[in-house]
């Protein structure tokens, strides 16, 4: 059994489809920094440079999900689900002009899940 670290709701998938139609291939990044960095931000893959301290936690609905290594320390025991809510965020994420924003919902992995969890990919 292989356990993924991240998933996405059907509502968030619909927004990804809408953004993908306009912007092409997409990715998510969660930095933990300023400008709503604690929320997942969605970018066109051509508009964001992944840093050497970022980890690739997995791919969800055709989008790679990256997180800063220091931010991951707080999330390493959690399963993350990308969702969407009404309300304008203050980041540069592509969904912001739609009057919505992506959020992360989280839960602790069970002991069994944690034994079979996907190891984040370290970028060099």
UniProtKB/TrEMBL annotation:
A Pfam family hit: DUF779
Origin: domain of life: Bacteria
Protein's recorded name: DUF779 domain-containing protein
């Amino acid at each position: 059994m292989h356990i993924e670290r991240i998933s996405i709701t059907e509502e968030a998938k619909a927004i990804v489809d809408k953004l993908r139609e306009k912007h092409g291939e997409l990715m998510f990044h969660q930095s933990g920094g300023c400008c709503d960095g604690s929320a997942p931000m969605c970018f066109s893959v051509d508009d964001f440079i992944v840093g050497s301290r970022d980890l690739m936690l997995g791919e969800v609905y055709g989008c790679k999900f990256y997180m800063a290594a220091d931010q991951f320390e707080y999330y390493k025991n959690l399963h993350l689900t990308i969702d969407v809510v009404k309300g304008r965020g203050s980041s540069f994420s592509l969904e912001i002009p739609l009057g919505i924003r992506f959020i992360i919902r989280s839960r602790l992995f069970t002991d069994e899940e944690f034994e079979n969890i996907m190891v984040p990919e370290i970028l060099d």
